[in-house]
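Handout, section B. The chain below has 153 residues.
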Amino acid sequence: MSAPDFHPADARYAERVRASFARQTAMATIGASIVDVQPGQVAVELPYAAHLTQQHGFLHGGILGAALDSACGYAASTLMPAEAGVLSIEYKINFLAPAKGQRFRLVGTVVKQGRTISVVEGRAYAIDGDREKLVATMHTTLMTVTGRDDVKH
């Protein structure tokens, strides 16, 4: 999915998104890093790690879902005002193939930007050498949050 043609409300959106991602201890725990930030699109990478797998040696679906949810949330965040936060209010994930690879690329792309509610599509790819395979898709609905001390940008 290519990056949409959106115009962010905050000129410093990329810096803000990267700083917020850096505060996510869950993503640090699994070794995920943000690798690209564009208006309406964010890519996260996650290296293969044996301690993140399920019983067959594939990346656990819960780990894949958490990282893909973050990519989707930050994609929506790129278009929000500087003072706004974002919370997922619903998502559906489809596992298309076993998540087996040397690393994983998770991309969130905004489909519909709204003032309060945004819709984002996510795609997860397993990368093995020079081969890339789509292993999961996600459909996410996110809420813009302002004026709350416990939900910050």
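Note. Strands lie at 33-38, 41-47, 85-95, 103-112, 117-128, 131-145. Compare this with the example in section A.
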